Amino acid sequence: MARLHYLITFYFKLGLRHGDILQLLGTVDNIVISMRTLRRILKDMGFPGLPYRRKNESDPLEVASFLIDQLNGHGRLHGYKFHHLNCVQAGYVVTQSTVRHLLKSLNPNGVERRRRNRLMRRMYLNPGPNFMWHVDSYDKLKPFGVCINGAIDGFSRLMIWLHAYSTNSNPKIIAGYFIQEVERRMGTPSRIRADLGTENVTMAEMQRFLRWSTDRRIVSNCYISGSSNHNQRIESWWAFLRRHHAQYWMNRFQELKDKDCFSGDFLDKQLILFTCLSIIQEELQQIAQLWNTHVVRKSRNAVAPSGRLILMYTLPHLFGGQDHLKQVSQEAVEACKEECQQRGPCPCDETVFDMCCLIMAENFLHSPTTADEAIELYLFLRACILKDLDIIP
Q: Where is each Integrase core domain found (predicted)?
């Protein structure tokens, strides 16, 4: 019973509808309960049901205050549906309509900008989840030292992984991202689509080895490489990431550059990594969770299925698909892990890391938790180090 309550609480706080919760419980967790039982359990645990929500919505002023906090950061790039999902996962009882009207008042310029940006996309076909993972790196923050790499499932559009680190050019690091997800699922996708960069070489060899270890006849078409601009699924998602997150940090870093507080040299990049990388990584995980739990609306001209991404990935038969995950052995995974390189505990160069920790300890400073605190700490550390080096900033 405790496990059932934990699962129901987890799914409910993700913002899933009652029907979605029942489907996940029955298919993924092998727990079959009725809608009436689910509503009773939610009521006993103090979670509001639909009639309660209609009569007991959260105070609009509290919701507005929460939205203002979100709009002060990268949340200013979100639309009303993402903001609504964020409110639900934060514990507020609010409708999409209320959030939409609040955003019109709190961020009218952002609403108007999103209304003008409507794109026509190419047609994409995929038979089911794990048929193809699209892997690519995102370099918009690389001039400032932050390198992002991600993978997306072609059928459900669910983000498989999304990581920020000091490099996305080391093939053993990229292979580590891949093997970590393979081990979680104890299976590998039928195919991987990536670009021709050398950072994908180790991952390509591992994919061929894992497929060969289960079916020695299939090794030729399990990895597809080509130009990055033809990797449609992940390239489309990078545009989403820029609108909803990356543009905010690009603007913050560009402000530092315009004020001559960032020269692009080794020290400045390492300081950015020391102060900002953990915050950016945490925000990326939040963005991925919001994306994976949001609902894709049905489009008149789209061939891809519509619905909640996590359900499309977990329950593909409900959306006309079939899971194509290929099981692999633990021995094969362990053999691949020996060729991977895990991210170290230091987000930047060890010498710079030790120096920054010493300066923070001497001045009784704590690790930043927000973008503003990170930028402030960056400026302070930069000034201290340049002063010690007798360089005028």
A: 124-302
Compute the Cα dihedral for 356, 279, 176, 232 and give only its sign. negative
In which residue are the tokens 């076909």 written? 125
Confidence at residue 392, expressed as pLDDT on a 0 to 100 scale:
52
User: Can you give the length of the chain in residues?
Assistant: 393
DSSP helix/strand/coil, 162: strand
Chain-centroid distance of CA 123 in Å reads 24
What number of other Cβ atoms are within 10 A of residue 114's Cβ?
16
What's the Rg (C-alpha) of the chain? 23
C-alpha distances (whole Å) from 135 to each of 7, 115, 178, 192, 319 are 31, 29, 9, 7, 24
- Tell me the two tokens of residue 276: 């900002």
Q: In sequence order, what are the residues at sequence separation of 6 or more whose Cβ sits closer than 8 angstroms to the Cβ of residue 180?
A: 161
Tokens representing 60?
A: 């609009």
**Cα angle value 203/204/210 (rounded, 5°):** 85
Provide the 8-state DSSP code for 338: T
Please state which architecture CATH assigns to domain 132-337.
Answer: 2-Layer Sandwich (3.30)
User: In this structure, which amino acid lies at residue 81?
Assistant: K
Token digits of residue 144: 């400032």
Distance CA 170, CA 199 (A): 5
Return the SS3 of 192.
strand
Cα 330 from Cα 173, distance rounded (Å): 20
> What is the block-wise mean pLDDT of the chain (393 residues), using blocks of 10 residues?
86 83 88 89 73 68 90 84 88 88 87 65 75 95 96 95 95 96 94 92 94 77 84 90 95 96 95 97 96 86 80 92 93 94 90 95 94 96 89 55
Dihedral, CA atoms, 333, 334, 335, 341, nearest 10 degrees? 100
DSSP SS3 for 389: coil
Give the 3-state secondary structure of 203-214: HHHHHHHHHHHH
